[in-house]
Design brief:
Blueprint (H helix, E strand, L loop, with lengths): L7 E3 L10 H7 L25 E6 L2 H22 L1 H8 L10 H4 L2 E8 L1 E3 L5 E3 L3 H18 L13 H7 L6 E9 L7 E3 L6 H4 L4
Family: Belongs to the nitroreductase family.
Pfam family, one: Nitroreductase
GO molecular function: iodotyrosine deiodinase activity
């Protein structure tokens, strides 16, 4: 989404483009591929190899719009009441608000659910160790793969939307929404703040 201000650079953003060929042909053509998405040939690790994740790929325009309606309804409450003035002030430089038009325009939405537990063959609960950390690592690998494929996204954590989106998508109660990723080709007219990064000596300690 376009933004105003002096400290900006042109960047990539989702657009009205058709579903990217690399996603349609390489990933979405075979359901197994969605869990094998490292930049090279590895897979995401998980605690005790429980693979506690579900990736819901949404391409249907009506479903995407329903997702947008749920998120915008909750996000308006977040910005006006739940988040508080300090959080809203910290976000002001990004010029974000509760309007999320990219949820309609992005050709693909990927909703990442963590499985807080699984089920054994006898129907009893199966522990999923470190489920949130495992799914977070998988999301990081997916983000790297998307960038490597020339696609763009923005990490979204829809506050207070998880249960409604889970029901909308028909996911079971043992799954909790962790992240939402709109995915598509770059838009030529998008800009974001030109943010600086911490220097290496502030983020790495060698012992």
């Amino acid at each position: 989404m376009p933004m105003d201000g002096k400290s900006q650079r042109r960047t990539l953003n989702t657009s009205h483009s058709p579903i990217p060929v690399i996603l349609r042909g390489k990933w979405f053509g075979d359901p197994k591929n969605i869990t094998n998405f490292s930049v090279r040939d590895g897979t995401a690790p998980s605690g005790a190899h429980t693979e506690p994740w579900t990736f819901v790929v949404v391409k249907d325009p009506d479903t995407k719009h329903q997702i947008r309606e749920i998120i915008e309804e909750e996000e308006e409450i977040n910005y006006l009441k739940r988040m508080g003035p300090r959080w809203v002030t910290d976000l002001r430089k990004f010029r974000t608000n509760w309007i999320k038009e990219y949820l309609d325009t992005a050709p693909v939405l990927i909703l990442v659910f963590k499985q807080v537990h699984g089920f054994a063959a006898n129907g009893k609960k199966k522990i999923h160790y470190y489920n949130e950390i495992s799914v977070s690592i998988a999301c990081g690998i997916l983000l790297a793969a998307l960038q490597n494929a020339g696609l763009v996204t923005v990490t979204t954590t829809p506050l207070n939307c998880g249960s409604r989106l889970r029901v909308l998508l028909g996911r079971p109660a043992n799954e909790k929404l962790l992240m939402l990723l709109p995915v598509g080709y770059p838009s030529e007219d998008a800009t974001v703040p030109d943010l600086t990064r911490k220097p290496l000596d502030q983020i790495m300690v060698t012992v």
